[in-house]
């Protein structure tokens, strides 16, 4: 039985040496990744290094203020009109004419094309239909919401 014990002890010793080698290789790999594979790791710049790098940049002119767009006329301002339970409509007035900018149905509703033209939006739900009729009052969009329930 002696030879068998010696083989077992040798196998355990080999296993311990291989495990220790694998541990060393793993720790070395983690250390290399942490400090950069190619050597020196990244470190934050000091205030002096930042100042010297900024001083080395070519001089530029002072930033120009942004060009402000021509402000829209008061009657071209877009306004969100509540469409009842159906959703919302963004509208602006061009003179006395409402112009739909966008329409967003609420969850459970969909936007329906309507025969009413640009002054009307329809939202359709499972058992409810919402009709939003748009107009302009003193240059401000107004929505008249009518809700119809299916029987």
Question: What do these coordinates show?
Answer:
- The protein has 151 residues and is of the alpha+beta class.
- The strands form two sheets. The chain has a four-stranded antiparallel beta sheet, with no helix packed on it. Strands 1-2-3 form a three-stranded antiparallel beta sheet, with no helix packed on it.
- Residues 70-75 have low confidence and may be disordered.
- The N and C termini lie far apart (94 Å).
- The radius of gyration is 37 Å and the shape is elongated.
- The protein has helices at 2-35, 47-56, and strands at residues 78-82, 87-94, 97-105, 110-112, 120-124, 128-137, 140-149.
- The relative contact order is 0.11.
Task: Summarize it.
The protein is an alpha+beta fold and 151 residues long.
Task: Supply database-style keywords.
single chain; 151 residues; alpha+beta; 4-stranded antiparallel beta sheet; 3-stranded antiparallel beta sheet; 2 helices; 29% helix; elongated
Strand order of the largest sheet: 4-5-6-7
Strand content: 25-35%
Spell the H/E element sequence: HHEEEEEEE
- Taking Cα atoms only, what radius of gyration do you get, to the nearest Å? 37 Å
Oligomer: single chain
Q: In angstroms, what separates the terminal alpha carbons?
A: 94 Å
What's the overall geometry?
A: elongated
Helix fraction bin: 25-40%
Query: Could you tell me the mean pLDDT?
Result: 78
Major β-sheet profile: 4 strands, antiparallel
How many β-strands, per DSSP? 7
Q: Pairing-aware structural class of the strands and helices?
A: alpha+beta
């Amino acid at each position: 039985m002696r030879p068998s014990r010696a083989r077992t002890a040798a196998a355990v010793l080999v296993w311990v040496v291989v495990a220790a080698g694998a541990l060393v290789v793993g720790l070395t790999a983690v250390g290399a990744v942490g400090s950069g594979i190619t050597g020196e790791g990244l470190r934050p710049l000091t205030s002096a290094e930042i100042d010297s790098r900024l001083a080395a940049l070519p001089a530029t002119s002072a930033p120009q203020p942004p060009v402000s767009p021509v402000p829209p006329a008061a009657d071209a301002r877009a306004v969100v009109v509540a469409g009842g339970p159906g959703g919302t409509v963004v509208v602006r007035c061009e003179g006395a004419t409402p112009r739909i900018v966008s329409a967003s149905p609420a969850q459970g509703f969909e936007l329906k094309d309507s025969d009413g033209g640009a002054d009307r939006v329809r939202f359709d739900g499972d058992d409810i239909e919402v009709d939003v009729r748009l107009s302009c009052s003193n240059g401000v969009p107004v929505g008249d919401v009518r809700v119809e329930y299916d029987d």
